[in-house]
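It is worth pausing here to work through a concrete case rather than discussing structure prediction in the abstract. The textbook approach is simple: state the sequence, then state the predicted structure, then interpret. We follow exactly that order.
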Amino acid sequence: MADEGINLIGPLEPAFRLELTAAQLKVTHTALKSLLDDFGHEERDVQDIVREVLGKLPAEPEIRAIDLGREMARRRAALSPD
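Step two, the predicted structure:
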């Protein structure tokens, strides 16, 4: 049956684990906050899920403390040949 694969992951089971750099974490947090701000009242279920994901990320002050310019410079330095 086509529906057999739908229930392979339980509704509260993690489906994926993801490791992020500091820069990726900041961008992900910013994107999720923007997504949350863009939804209207009729998308309450999606808003709830976005809030759940944001709740798994570090607190907002920790995210704000990430200097994206500094992180990008560190990234470029790590990628450039010596």
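Step three, interpretation. Residues 36 and 49 are 10 Å apart (CA to CA). Residues 20-79 form one domain.
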